[in-house]
Structures are given as structure tokens and as C-alpha cells.
Design a protein that fits this description.
about 375 residues, five-stranded mixed beta sheet, alpha+beta, Peroxisomal Thiolase, Chain A, domain 1
Length: about 375
């Protein structure tokens, strides 16, 4: 993002300080409508990522389930994925990504006023992974909570964090997406075990120069089709149990064809709505960073939008689907590779279990 300018809100509070609520918002938006932040002012100041050392190639998967490297690449675009090693947890990889983002932003942990960890694979129901990250990075007294919006989790977290800063509640926020989905995969189910990988990404948010940062965002959910992607916890519905014939009860299950249709449509419409909502055209966008679930989904959504590969960032071949970590890992890698430059208009777009989806438009 552009050089750090004035703080992103008029009233700032120290982490843990009582916030005095101002009057309600002057502008209200219909559910699912793109929310436009015309003056910008809050954006990403630093990014970090952590990918476990352990690589699981398609060739190794050929020895586990009935599949081939060619079959996986043709249908998903994935060549390998990362898996955590013994001793690594969702919290431990989240902390590593968070520390990298803080270093990249030049922000001290003690200045963070909000920590959000987006994850569908926490180490425990309680405490929240965010509380462990908060303690590890020295973000004392700040608000901290986990968020589960499936693979859209990072977008939800980024949107909430920028709103919190914009309200004046804090000066800096830390958003982490961290997943150890390999612990939730049925390694006998070739439809799902080929897709997922472990990893973590993080972003530090704060004030930016005027006209930079978050320009518009939208978040949506279609609960009518919530059964399309499931990971049961304390209970399981009869419908989900029926769908899972031959698949373990406590692992990831998804309807691949339904996901493909929904994701291609949802991601393309979210991009158009957030761009047009901000009064821009697709030609004004320098780079789109989609959720890295499957190269066919990305290509189908790009085709709907009439975009070439040079406008769309992908790294799914190396990491597979890292769920809520995907967007932040991709943003970090795109920025590190020079694919994102100061002044660029960048759209991050994702879909996930729920079915959730959304998009964020940023000026870097």
C-alpha cells in the first residue's frame, strides 16, 4: 500500500480502552450490496505467510488413492500441496504468518487493537486461536476472536477489521487466515484429499494515504445451499450422513459439481458488483487475486469476466486449496513477486462453505 498517512479514523483508542460510541451511520446499504469507502484511508500495511516444509506431490497421492498426476492436474491444476509436520498446529502456523506480517508492516505487536483469525480448522473450540496469536505477538488487551466463513474467511476478517479501524476503535488490526485442513481430510476419499493443503497468511491493517486502501467491499452468503460443503462437529444431520456414504463422518465433504457451478458464478458476479459499485470498470483493475481452490473454477470465472491470465494471480498449483489462508497467502506472494505495485487497483475475491462469497477492491 501507499506510505502510511493519517490514521484511518478520527477517534483512536488504545487497545482495551473503552470506546465511546458515535451516532449511527449516515449511509445504509442493502444486504449484499457493495459498500463503498470513497475516501479510502484504511488498507493493508504489511503481509506475511507461512507454508509448512512438508510437500505432498501428486505422485505420492498415486500411492494412497486411485488417481494419477495427470488426472489431478487436468481437473484441479494442483501439482503439490503443503502439510503440517509433527508439532505444528493451526495456532503455531498462524503465529508465524502474523509475525511475518508485523515485521513487513513495521508495526509492533503492542500497537495492535484487534486480532481476527479466520479458520475452519482450529486446534480447539476454546480458547480461540486468535487469543493464542494475540499473546504470542504481544498484542496485550486488544480484542481477539476467531471467524469461520469457510474459504471466504479472510475477506470477512479484512472487511470487519477495516470497519473497526474506520470507526476509531483502534489504529491497527491483525487479520490471519490459518488452516490445517489435512487433519480434516479423509485420505481414502480421492475426491477431496487431492484438493487441500495447510498454510497461513496474515495482514496488518492501518491508516493509509487518502485515496488508498479499501475502496469497496461486499460480503454475501447463500445458506440455502449450506449442505454443498460440510465438516461436521458435535452433530451431523440425517441428510449429511446420507450424502457421506463411504466417507468418514468428521471430515470434509463436498459436492464438486455444485461447488464448480456456484463458485464460477459467484466469484464473477462479486467482482463485477464490487468494481461497478465503486464506479469503476473491469479495465481499471490491475490484478484480481481469487481464492485458490481449483484452476478450472478460476478459469471459468475469468472467462465469464472476459479476463486474460495476465490479470489473474494463481498459485494453486503449488499449495492446493488452503481454505481461509488462500487469499492472504496469494496476496503476499503477488506483492513479493512485484505483481502488485503502488497505485494498482486490486480485487480479492473468494467463495466458501456456507455458501459464502465476497470481494474487496483495494488501491495499493
Amino acid at each position: 500500500m501507499d506510505e502510511l498517512g493519517s490514521q484511518g479514523a478520527a477517534l483512536l483508542y488504545a487497545p482495551g480502552q473503552t470506546e465511546r460510541n458515535a451516532p449511527g451511520p449516515a449511509h445504509l446499504y442493502a444486504p449484499g450490496q457493495a459498500h463503498v469507502y470513497r475516501e479510502g484511508g484504511v488498507g493493508i500495511l504489511g503481509l506475511g505467510a507461512y507454508l509448512p516444509d512438508r510437500r505432498l506431490t501428486n505422485g505420492e497421492l498415486e500411492k494412497i488413492v486411485e488417481t494419477t498426476d495427470a488426472w489431478i492436474v487436468q481437473r484441479t491444476g494442483i501439482s503439490e500441496r503443503r502439510l503440517i509436520s509433527e508439532g505444528e498446529t493451526t495456532a503455531s502456523i498462524a503465529i508465524k504468518a502474523a509475525e511475518a506480517a508485523l515485521s513487513n508492516a513495521g508495526v509492533a505487536g503492542g500497537d495492535i487493537g484487534l486480532v481476527i483469525v479466520a479458520t475452519a480448522s482450529p486446534d480447539s473450540y476454546a480458547p480461540a486461536t486468535a487469543s493464542l496469536v494475540q499473546h504470542a505477538v504481544g498484542a496485550k488487551n486488544c480484542a481477539a476472536f476467531d471467524l469461520n466463513a469457510g474459504c471466504s474467511g479472510a475477506l470477512y476478517g479484512l472487511t470487519l477489521a477495516q470497519s473497526y479501524i474506520k470507526s476509531g476503535a483502534c489504529g491497527y488490526a491483525l487479520v490471519v487466515g490459518a488452516e490445517t485442513i489435512s487433519r480434516l481430510v479423509d485420505w481414502d476419499d480421492r475426491k477431496t484429499c487431492i484438493l487441500f493443503g495447510d498454510g497461513a497468511g496474515a495482514a496488518v491493517l492501518g491508516g493509509t494515504g487518502s485515496g488508498y486502501g479499501f475502496i469497496a467491499s461486499l460480503l454475501r452468503s447463500d445458506g440455502e445451499d449450506s449442505g454443498v460443503i460440510t465438516i461436521p462437529a458435535l452433530s451431523i444431520s440425517d441428510e449429511d450422513l446420507e450424502r457421506r456414504k463411504g466417507v468418514k463422518k468428521s471430515t470434509v465433504w463436498l459436492d464438486g459439481s455444485m461447488v464448480m457451478k456456484f463458485a464460477s458464478r459467484a466469484m464473477s458476479s462479486a467482482v463485477l458488483d464490487v468494481v461497478n459499485g465503486a464506479g469503476l470498470e473491469l479495465g481499471d483493475i490491475d490484478l484480481i487475486v481469487p481464492h485458490q481452490a481449483n484452476i478450472r473454477i478460476i478459469e471459468n470465472a475469468s472467462k465469464r469476466l472476459g479476463l486474460g491470465g495476465d490479470k489473474v494471480f494463481t498459485n494453486v498449483s503449488k499449495y492446493g486449496n488452503t481454505s481461509a489462508a488462500s487469499i492472504l497467502i496469494a496476496l503476499q506472494e503477488a506483492a513479493a513477486e512485484g505483481r502488485i505495485k503502488s497505485g494498482d487497483n486490486v480485487v480479492a475475491v473468494a467463495f466458501g462453505a456456507g455458501l459464502t462469497y465476497g470481494a474487496i477492491l483495494m488501491r495499493w
